[in-house]
Design a protein that fits this description.
The chain is α+β, with helices and mostly antiparallel strands and about 110 residues long. It is built from four helices and five strands; from the N terminus they run H-H-E-E-E-E-E-H-H. The chain has helices at about 5-10, 15-25, 90-95, 95-100, and strands at about 30-35, 40-50, 55-60, 65-70, 80-85. It is globular.
Length: about 110
């Protein structure tokens, strides 16, 4: 990973909401980021839970908002199952993408 990615990992992975998201969804491979005008604008963690079922936690660095989303593309393009702005840890637990999509929990 390049220096920017290392810096973002170091800065954002310790956040409680990111930590909880990564514990809830161990399929997450780490943080990604998107840029615009040569600046990092968003930091995100996402995972594919099953075929075409995706979960994402995204931090918009421009306005400091956090978006949690769970989508099931088996039900159509961009079919959102859950979309929460500025979620709490309890929101993540209550809106577990596996449960909302009736996926078998693996232990």
């Amino acid at each position: 990973m390049n220096l920017c990615g290392d810096h973002l990992e170091e800065k954002y992975v310790p956040l409680p909401i990111i930590q909880h998201f990564m514990q809830l969804y161990p399929e997450t491979t780490g943080l990604g980021y998107s840029t615009g005008m040569y600046q990092v604008q968003k930091v995100f963690a996402d995972a594919m839970l099953a075929e075409k079922i995706f979960v994402r936690l995204e931090i918009d660095l421009r306005d400091s908002s956090i978006i949690y989303s769970c989508s099931n593309h088996n039900k159509g393009d961009d079919f959102l199952v859950s979309y929460i702005t500025n979620p709490t840890v309890n929101d993540l637990d209550s809106n577990n993408c596996r449960t909302l999509n009736n996926l078998i929990l693996e232990k």
